[in-house]
Amino acid sequence: MNRDIPGRSFFVAAYLILTIGFLTVHFTRVESFSAVVGPVTVKGRSSVGTTLSPPQIRRIRLNVNGLELGFRKNQRAFLITDDGIRHPLSVTDWNADDDSVRIVFSNDTAFEMTADPHGTGLRLIPSVPTTVPPVRSIELPFEPEGGTEMTVTADRPGTLEIRDGDREYIAELPADSRWDPGSRRLNLVVLDKADPILTIADDRRGAGLTAEEWIDQGNGPAGSAYERAVEDWIGVVRAGWESRIDPRSGLWTDASGNPRWSDELASALLADAVSAGSLPSRLQDVLSAADRSPTTIGWLPSPYLGNIVNQNRVHSQELRTTARSAAAALQDGTARPAGEGLLTALVDSGYDAEAAALTDLARREPEDGAAGTDVIDRIAVLHDAVELGLDDESDAAVRRALFDGWIVPRIFWV
Question: By residue range, what is the domain housing residue 180?
Fold first, then answer.
């Protein structure tokens, strides 16, 4: 005789509900990600992937120069084919390197935002599939954030004027493209366009003065204005440090959004904390991060974190290795001025002839199109030469020529 066990139905139902609830929570857990690439900030949330379910990007937001491109379920991008049909797109992936961010959509569609390493310029480069009928345009949510103003100008067709505080920019659209201020959506036309790229550039050059010309006028800012600007900048930097902390690992995120330990950032945080009188609380935060990545801590923050004797021994070995590599490169003609500290490493390691050769190399005129970092490295080497007594009477003029001829023209227009 079969007899129902009292309460069995209840326990079975409860078990099923708990199982479904567990699976729902398990497969819908989300995590945050972020990255900073030049002037571009990337933030978003994605589901946590499992063996049964790959991670899915729930939302992603790019902020730059007071502008925002944000994508989520109810704020999508669209492909518009030549027959007028709008095809919704979902974000499937994203990646970043030193100067660009790439957003990948469904339907073989993507765009890349590239920052100019020498200025404030940006380019948004769309990539669309080959279809029948062909893709006419890609539509993106594109809007000003906060107090930023963006207007369509009648006297400059195909451009948007952007005012972000005291900064002004111009966005130049591909031919036939437009931004709708009502829907706050950008329609980039790609059909039959050789170069369908959105460019955003600093518009302060309208007055026609380079930085050098402006300085020569003698109208520099008052001391109080300069100090206020520096304080504002320090506040922004401190906020940037805070925004890079990954809440799960306690480490700082790099340009690709991966949490990792940074000797440079740890040292900067602690040095700033000393000047701000907040070392005890800040030190505890950094020590907590250090505990999560003990094998990657280097020499630079050791005066704050301890173990300076052992770290100094390791650092000395690293300097000797660097000096040997630089000496070999100088001997075979493949060396380049590599910036602050290299000249000192050569001298301290007994490579006097190679140190002199590196100083001579830094004095040479950079090649056309040389990166700003290359010019700054040359100036750094010549600065170290003064400290080490390796300079000659012409070096001051060389440093001035490098700064005036290569650095100042790239700083800004006013």
Answer: 28-207
